[in-house]
UniProtKB/TrEMBL annotation:
<dbReference type="GO" id="GO:0003677">
    <property type="term" value="F:DNA binding"/>
</dbReference>
<feature type="site" description="Transition state stabilizer">
    <location>
        <position position="124"/>
    </location>
</feature>
<dbReference type="Pfam" id="PF00521">
    <property type="entry name" value="DNA_topoisoIV"/>
</dbReference>
<dbReference type="GO" id="GO:0006265">
    <property type="term" value="P:DNA topological change"/>
</dbReference>
<dbReference type="InterPro" id="IPR050220">
    <property type="entry name" value="Type_II_DNA_Topoisomerases"/>
</dbReference>
<dbReference type="GO" id="GO:0003918">
    <property type="term" value="F:DNA topoisomerase type II (double strand cut, ATP-hydrolyzing) activity"/>
</dbReference>
<dbReference type="InterPro" id="IPR006691">
    <property type="entry name" value="GyrA/parC_rep"/>
</dbReference>
<keyword id="KW-0472">Membrane</keyword>
<keyword id="KW-0799">Topoisomerase</keyword>
<dbReference type="InterPro" id="IPR013760">
    <property type="entry name" value="Topo_IIA-like_dom_sf"/>
</dbReference>
<dbReference type="InterPro" id="IPR002205">
    <property type="entry name" value="Topo_IIA_dom_A"/>
</dbReference>
<feature type="active site" description="O-(5'-phospho-DNA)-tyrosine intermediate">
    <location>
        <position position="125"/>
    </location>
</feature>
<comment type="subunit">
    <text>Heterotetramer composed of ParC and ParE.</text>
</comment>
<dbReference type="Pfam" id="PF03989">
    <property type="entry name" value="DNA_gyraseA_C"/>
</dbReference>
<dbReference type="GO" id="GO:0009330">
    <property type="term" value="C:DNA topoisomerase type II (double strand cut, ATP-hydrolyzing) complex"/>
</dbReference>
<keyword id="KW-0238">DNA-binding</keyword>
<dbReference type="InterPro" id="IPR013758">
    <property type="entry name" value="Topo_IIA_A/C_ab"/>
</dbReference>
Length: 744
């Protein structure tokens, strides 16, 4: 028997790549639709929806007592969500945290964590129940308002989506990472959202989606549970809500407290959303210790129930706005709030929606819920009317009914035949108690019958009229504004503001900006001494050491150091060793390559450009901000070949480049012939045969060539004979040019 014939029918050969791709795709789709992305209709992920439904079944409404969270988690895992208890409890905790949820869905009792980042107590200690907002999400769930589906073991049924009489998706926001996509929706003010929805319901049903500018008249922007100030322009907000993607700057809220003798202190009262206060204070303390925010003198955390971080300036002359701007730039007192409104639409398809599309999806869902609840109520009314009509028929000749019941062995068919009843009506009459045969009971039945007929007519008219349904929904939204848009819970917490304009130079400057002289000796000892040394002879060196670089700078300057192997390092002048001694070896500050020599030490200019050249005559133009590196290892800027080295560089101060080799030949060409690169070997500057490049400068036709000879400065303006194309061999230097073959 062949191997193929012996194989069972339920086993088929499949390539490993095909099987792996199918299973990974199934996993990705499951992650997207069942774990990470919220539903646009109720704004919930499956675990959150199952938590709320399980708590409803446990009768944990706001009027009842609390139950242990372990009981809730156990019900969710056992009935609806076969996952780990830690993940379910974490989801429950987040729904109860007032600093995470703008409108908490769970009312927690016990330790549910805090803004410092401390975790919640174990689920056996904490208790929970639903909030009014959660009850609004569940409102009408037992009135056939939404679809139900079997649970994972087919023993229970769970809702596919909640009725959601509250715009939870935008009100509480959502965040999640799936496979290949993510979502990040900030919380908003429910009162503003409901007013926007009410305004949209005033428009005709066939009207197109409203313009974002009109919606922004109602929705001012995100409203975060921890407050803060959003510093973005209306145009940025409008574009974010139009496209569903964007990024917003969120700042902490702070105020000035005046002290005695003209002193003051700054107090941070609200920190950005999802920033841990303890980590923020640690970061501020690190910046203070490292002197990276020189305007800050001290800080302390005086927070209790509310946030209170006290910042003391270094002196009373420091401007509060300037100090805060330094802290905003250096710490999480200012963060970027990423927005990616990626959700599952009504069909379960993930897509990025605009603000108008999200609000319209909420309206569509509520309209469907309204229609289903109305049909459900009509069914209940029809059932009751059927019974009432049977009762009323019986009351017309109650004596005959009693006689049939008393005398007949099978009264049910006789009642049906005598009074033209249905089986349900006959059964209901047979189940009537004798005490309900009073005259007053007949009057009550007629009154109920008339009321139900009137209600039935109203509901049928509601189903037949789109404008009436929109009017009903609008009244519902305005009722929501009354319930959730007022009081401390509904008051807007996040302020919309503009970032103050601060002079960048003042912002980057420390409290004390003073001149320094940076000295790097021949043997590699570096120091920065206060003040500008006028006479080089005033600088002292170790025995056997001598001057290499003497640079005038400011204490706030950054320095660029380039080595012959093509590396670039960035140093901070205020971090260099003191000038009281001979300094420290440069090797303690940066990892100098073995055998490499320091070629240049200069003040860093972010907008500056340098022309670099190697001994073999190759080079390019480098932008200083692209080559600066603050790491100890530096950044490889010039890729030097074997036997080559970086020998010359010059700042771009003209539109011409002059190069010279040790063959005493000079070539001048235009700067725009050189490429601008962040790293590489570059192009040929000047061709040499048995010679090397020794120096280069940039110049203009007006300035001409300038060099130092015998302690005097010489100038040569007759450049025509030396002009040529890049890559030429050049011409012998003019009389008087230094024998060192260098311009300086």
């Amino acid at each position: 028997m062949s191997q193929a014939a012996a194989r069972p029918e339920n086993i088929r050969p499949v390539s490993f790549n095909e099987a792996l791709s199918e299973r990974y795709l199934a996993y990705a789709l499951s992650t997207i639709t069942s774990r990470s992305l919220p539903d646009v209709r109720d704004g919930l992920k499956p675990v959150q929806r199952r938590l709320l439904y399980a708590m409803l079944q446990l009768r944990l409404d706001p009027a009842s007592g609390y139950k242990k969270c372990a009981r809730v988690v156990g019900d969710v895992i056992g009935k609806f969500h076969p996952h780990g208890d830690v993940a379910v409890y974490d989801a429950l905790v987040r729904l109860a945290q007032e600093f995470a949820q703008r409108y908490p869905l769970v009312d927690g009792q016990g330790n549910f964590g805090n803004v410092d980042g401390d975790s919640a107590a174990a689920m056996r200690y904490t208790e929970s129940r639903l909030t009014e907002v959660a009850m609004a999400l569940l409102q009408g769930i037992d009135e056939d308002s939404v679809d139900f589906r079997p649970t994972y073991d087919d023993s229970e049924r769970e809702p596919v989506v909640l009725p959601a009489a509250f715009p939870n998706l935008l009100a509480n926001g959502s965040a999640g990472i799936a496979v290949g996509m993510a979502t990040s929706i900030p919380p908003h003010n429910a009162g503003e959202l409901l007013r926007a929805v009410a305004w949209m319901l005033e428009q005709p049903a066939e009207a197109p989606l409203p313009a974002i500018d009109r919606l922004l008249e109602h929705v001012k922007g995100p409203d975060l549970p921890t407050g803060g100030i959003l510093v973005e322009t209306p145009a940025v907000l409008a574009e974010m809500y139009r496209t569903g993607r964007g990024s917003l700057r969120l700042r902490a809220r702070w105020e000035v407290e005046q002290l005695a003798y003209g002193q003051y202190q700054l107090v941070v009262t609200e920190i950005p959303y999802q920033v841990q206060k303890s980590r923020l204070v640690e970061r501020l303390a690190e910046l203070l210790a490292a002197k990276k925010v020189p305007l800050l003198g001290d800080l302390r955390d005086e927070s209790a129930e509310t946030v209170r971080i006290v910042l003391q300036p270094r002196s009373r002359g420091v401007q509060p706005e300037l100090l805060m701007e330094q802290l905003f730039r250096a710490s999480d007192l200012e963060v970027r709030l990423a927005v990616n409104m990626n959700v599952l639409d009504g069909t379960g398809t993930p897509r990025v929606m605009s603000l108008a599309e999200m609000l319209q999806a909420f309206i569509d869902h509520r309209m469907e819920v309204l229609v289903r609840r109305t049909n459900f109520r009509l069914g209940k009314i029809a059932d009751r009317l059927e019974l009432l009509e049977g009762y009323l028929k019986a009351f017309l000749d109650i004596d005959r009914v009693i006689r049939i019941i008393r005398d007949s062995d099978e009264p049910k068919p006789e009642l049906i035949a005598a009074f033209e009843l249905t089986e349900r009506q006959a059964e209901a009459i047979l189940n009537l108690r004798l005490r309900n045969l009073r005259k007053l009971e007949e009057m009550a039945l007629r009154k109920e019958h008339d009321a139900l007929l009137a209600e039935q007519g109203e509901l049928q008219g509601l189903l037949a009229s789109e404008p009436r349904r929109r009017k009903t929904l609008r009244a519902e939204m305005l009722e929501g504004v009354r319930r959730f848009g007022g009081g401390p819970l509904g008051r807007r917490r996040t302020e919309m503001g503009e970032a103050p304009s601060v002079d960048v130079e003042l912002l980057d400057a420390p409290v004390e900006r003073f001149p320094v002289t940076v000295v790097l000796s021949e043997k590699g000892w570096i120091r920065a001494q206060r003040g500008h040394v006028e006479k080089p002879g005033e600088i002292k060196y170790k025995d056997g050491d001598a001057e290499r670089f003497v640079l005038r700078a400011q204490s706030s300057d950054k320095l660029l150091l380039l080595t012959s192997d093509g590396r670039c390092f960035q140093l901070a002048a205020d971090k260099l060793p003191s000038g009281r001694g001979h300094g420290e070896p440069l090797a303690l500050l940066v990892d100098l390559p073995k055998g490499a020599d320091v070629l240049a030490l200069r003040v860093y200019r972010p907008d500056g450009r340098l022309v670099v050249g190697t001994a073999q005559g190759r080079g390019f133009v480098a932008v200083e901000k692209d080559i600066a590196a603050q790491t100890r290892a530096g950044r490889q800027v010039v890729n030097v070949a074997e036997g080559d080295r970086l020998v010359a560089l010059a700042p771009v101060e003209g539109d011409l480049v002059a190069t010279v080799g040790n063959n005493h030949k000079i070539l001048i060409f235009r700067l725009d012939e050189l490429p601008e690169m962040a790293r590489g070997r570059g192009v040929i500057l000047q061709r040499f045969k048995d010679a090397e490049l020794t120096d280069l400068v940039t110049l203009t036709e007006q300035s001409g060539m300038v060099w130092q000879a015998n302690g005097q400065q010489r100038q040569y303006r007759e450049l025509g004979g030396y002009m040529g194309k890049r890559g030429g061999t050049g011409r012998l230097a003019p009389r008087g040019f230094p024998k060192t073959d260098r311009f300086g």
